[in-house]
Amino acid sequence: LAHYFPDLEPYVNACQFPDCTHDHEPDCAVKAAVERGDVHTERHESYLAILESLREEQTPEY
User: Fold this and answer.
1) Domain 2-58 maps to which CATH number in 1.10.40.50, 1.10.760.10, 3.40.50.1100, 3.40.1050.10?
2) Which end of the chain has fewer CB atoms at under 10 Å, N or C?
């Protein structure tokens, strides 16, 4: 998903974990870029909202 956000792309491969979702993982380069102001908070929040909607779609309903 992050690859669809060009402003996040430069930071994606710098995360500690290769499968980082840029949500809750420690040493996330994307979150660090947001904290430094290199990436707008709103863009990261948009990314997280889409990520959450995708997670909800994948959650089976019983």
Assistant:
1) 1.10.40.50
2) C
Per-residue tokens: 9: 């792309």
Tokens of 49: 């909202």
Q: How many CB atoms lie within 10 A of CB 21?
A: 16
Mean pLDDT (whole number) for 53-58: 89
| Alpha carbon distance 53, 32 (integer Å) | 23
The tens digit of pLDDT for each residue in 15-40 reads: 999 999 999 999 999 999 999 999 99
Measured between alpha carbons, how far apart are the two ends of the chain, in Å? 27
pTM above 0.90, yes or no: no
